[in-house]
Amino acid sequence: MKILLWLLAAWPLLAATISNGQTFIVPYSQSYKLYMPHTTIDHLLIIPIPYQAKPTTRWLRIDGKAVKLQIKRKRYPKEHLSVAPSKVHPPKSVLKRIAAEFKEAKRIYAHTIPKSYITKPFILPIKSVITDPFGVARLFNGKLSSYHSGTDFRATMGSPVRAINDGVVVLAKMRYYAGGSVIIDHGRGIYSCYYHLSHFKVEPGERVKRGQIIALSGQSGRVTGPHLHLSIKIKGISVDPIQFIDAFNPAFKTVSSPHLGSKP
Ligand SMILES: [Zn+2]
């Protein structure tokens, strides 16, 4: 009997599944314990799962209760691209620049400010259709080269691009691959990135509001035509922006607006 009671007490009271490249978001009221990269906003525990994560089971404790988190492997589509061999590897003259830009971005994403600028749900940066979703594996000449680390939206040259939430601009400059780039720090290790821009409307250090026009879309960097690329980084991990927003917004409303529904 004692063993049975112990087993029941240890049994997971909650179970959830999440895929690689997605973000697991769960509310907590008192405490949490886990051993994987994560952050919090108000009373939401936010856990980004890397694209490269292998299927596994992780255990968390939320308010003293065990939560079984099953990480599944999502079958992201593959994209085959045939290009001249020289296009796969950038010319030697720009390798230094690429390395410096990579290092700079990594340093930005590794930094977590304790403050959160997020007081409202996220919005999309542009009213348009998605042309290339997150996670598509890219094979250049049959060799797996990379995966699509963000969401592409259809955009003509010069379309207004809006901040998806409040934050502070930490980068606004031209880069080799991403072209005209803006990165916004939303606080607590959450960043949004906007690429291939043609014109900047903000400067580093500037405080921005959700919906504010931060840039105009373009076709700068390594692209085949004009579009807007949006990335979201959480604790340095690239996650599917659409899945993140779809998971975050309803959860955020429940923790941030206790009086929601009491108004007409
Ligand atoms: Zn893209």
The helix tally amounts to 4
- Please tally the β strands and state the result: 20
Number of domain units: 2
At the third CATH level, what is the topology name of the largest domain? Glucose Permease (Domain IIA)
Helix proportion range: 10-25%
If you average the pLDDT, what whole number results? Answer: 91
- Specify Rg, calculated over alpha carbons: 20 Å
Unique ligands: zinc ion
Mind describing the biggest β-sheet? 10 strands, antiparallel
CATH homologous superfamily label of the largest domain: Glucose Permease (Domain IIA)
Ends: how far apart? 53 Å
Output the structural class: alpha+beta
Query: Which sequence of SSEs, written as H and E, runs from N to C?
Result: HEEEEEEEEHHEEEEEEEEEEEEH
Contiguous runs where pLDDT drops below 50 for at least 5 residues: 259-264
The CATH architecture classification of the largest domain is Distorted Sandwich
Shape category:
globular
Oligomer: single chain
